[in-house]
Every structure is written in structure tokens, then in C-alpha cells.
Amino acid sequence: PSRPVYRNFLYNVLINTSIMRKAGSKATVIVLVQMMRSAKSTSLPESDLAMLASINIQVRYIPSAKTDVTEGFASLMMDRLSHVLTLDEFERVLYLDADVFLRGSLDYLLDQSIKGILKKNVVFAGRHIPAMGSVFVAAPSSDYKSRLEILRNGTWDETNGWGHAFEAADYYELLNG
Q1: Is there a contact between 10 and 48 (Cβ–Cβ < 8 Å)?
Q2: 0.70 exceeded by the pTM?
Q3: Euclidean distance between CA atoms 173 and 55, whole angstroms
Q4: Which of 48, 96, 121, 174 sits between 20 and 30 A of 14, alpha carbons compared?
Q5: Pick from 21, 17, 95: which is nearest to 52 by CA?
Q6: Cβ distance 93 to 84 under 8 Å?
Q7: Beta strands at 135-138 and 122-123: parallel, antiparallel or unpaired
Q8: Segments in the chain below pLDDT 70
């Protein structure tokens, strides 16, 4: 809060929530706030909390990261995923990075996952990576720790993914040929 560099991300959350709601979204919106290790404050300023509350956005604080981005981006991604998977009061969670900009509601992704049209967990590929961490659908679970261990200890390969041998019903496509 003493250097509000995060505020642009906060504005994106407000804008995205407004776009989703105008498009008819009924989704609960939760912002997971992770204060920097060096932050003197343990929460956002009241003015920021009031902006979020004004359009019914919940705020949940998660522990500060153990590493900086420069020390281990993969570790930060795993940390982020671990917090999403603990939201087991929800059947599905659609995670969006705060720098993702929406054009409408994405409720249909949650609905299709719940109805079984899509898998419980949906990860979108990037142009040169098998999984993007900026947008995904997850089925939170009280058993999330064992799922994370597969990701932490596994490595990606085209036969077994991250520890799950691909079956006929599984689908992935490499976008870089």
C-alpha cells in the first residue's frame, strides 16, 4: 500500500467484474490478495476495500510468497494453484490473473465443466507452453495436496502429461507443431 503498484490490477478486477455482471454473470468474485514479503501493512487500504465491496467482490488474504518472481516463477505458480484448490466451498473455480481483460461472462466454462461437457479441471495451452497459469478452471478439493504433489514432482511429457497417462477421452493439442 505504500507503493500502490498493485492498483492497476485492482482496477482490472473491478472492470472485469462489471463486464461479467453486465453480461449476466452470477459468479461469486473473490480476490486473493497476497501482500509482498516486504510490506509493512497486512491488508489493503480501506478505500480499496470499499471499492471492491461496492460491487460485492470478496477479499481473501493469502500468505506472502516464500520467493520473489525472480527467484522462482514456477514456485509462485504452484503457490497460486494451491490457494485456488482450497476454495472447496465451490464446485468449480474459474481463476483469472488480474491482468486478464474480459469481453463478457465466462460462466459458460464453469457450467460446461459442472455438466461434464468439459473436464473438471480445464487448463488452456499457450502458443509455446502446455498450460497457461493465467486462466484455468479447477475443481477444488479437500484432497488438493496430493494433486499438487503430482505437479510439483512431475515433469511434462507428451505421453503422461504431469503424472496422468493420457487416455482416449483426454485431449490436448500442441499449438507449436
Answers
A1: yes
A2: yes
A3: 38
A4: 121
A5: 17
A6: yes
A7: antiparallel
A8: 1-3, 65-78, 142-166, 171-177
